[in-house]
Design goal:
Blueprint lengths: L1 H17 L7 E12 L3 E9 L1 E3 L2 E3 L1 H14 L7 E15 L2 E14 L3 H8 L6 E10 L3 H25 L5 E11 L3 E3 L6 E2 L15 H4 L2 E14 L1
Antiparallel strand pairs: 1-11, 2-6, 2-7, 3-4, 5-6, 7-10, 8-11, 9-11
């Protein structure tokens, strides 16, 4: 009776073990795609300040009109100019007994080419220019580039998996899992760096031949995709 009881307990376990799902063989690879682009949306931060001329203060209102007129003549749309910040009045000590309150204002200007800012700032009184520098930059087709790179990355992953499996005489099956890794655009530090703090734009120099595309910092857009494929 003891032997029969043991067999009755053991047979259900054998039946369960025989119906267990087969182990899925798979390979996991990472595909990467990248692209270098020259930015075509460059944002300049321009700080203009009041100044004294012939014992009279040149106001921000007059300076701003001069600045916006220069932008219009350069073909920059009004929508590409925004006010970043208006700085509170500050003391400018002319003499111990004579001080004037001076204000300044920061603007953000979007241009497609940094050369445009040379023409603009040449038409603004040098005394009114406190600071001109590049705030940030990007490309107008960045969203389109990102989509293209994601597709290229997943294709690269499939190609990699196929030739790796081919080396061991295995065949590639369908994708089981896809993981996307987003990368922030990386700036390649190419000369020159467009940063300027003096009253002129002379610090904005270019490579030999004055080539904007050759000299400006490039943006490297990169995307990686990890894919798990079934092995047939």
């Amino acid at each position: 009776m003891k032997k029969i009881f043991f067999l009755l307990l053991f047979f259900p376990f054998l039946a369960f073990a025989q119906t267990a799902p087969p182990v899925t063989k798979y390979i996991t690879v990472t595909g990467k795609a990248e692209k270098e682009v020259v930015p075509d949306e460059i944002y300049f931060s321009v700080v203009l300040k009041e100044y004294m001329k012939d014992k009279n203060k040149v106001t921000l209102d007059k300076i701003e009109k001069e600045f916006t007129k220069a932008l219009q003549e350069a073909g920059i749309p009004q929508g590409d100019l925004t006010i970043e910040q208006v700085y509170g009045q500050r003391w400018r000590q002319k003499r111990k007994s004579d001080a004037e309150l001076l204000s300044s204002k920061s603007f953000l200007v979007k241009v497609s080419n940094p050369n445009i800012m040379n023409d603009v700032m040449d038409k603004v009184s040098p005394e009114a220019i406190e600071n001109v520098k590049i705030s940030h930059y990007t490309h107008s087709k960045m969203t389109e580039y990102k989509k293209e790179l994601k597709i290229e990355a997943i294709k690269a992953a499939k190609e990699k998996a196929a030739y790796l499996l081919g080396a061991i005489n295995e065949q590639l099956g369908e994708a089981l899992e896809v993981s996307e890794y987003n990368h922030e655009p990386v700036v390649w530090d190419l000369n020159p760096v467009y940063a300027q703090t003096s009253n002129t734009m002379s610090g904005m120099t270019y490579d030999e031949g004055n080539s904007y595309e050759a000299g400006f910092k490039k943006i490297k857009v990169s995307y990686s995709v990890t894919v798990k494929f079934r092995i047939k």
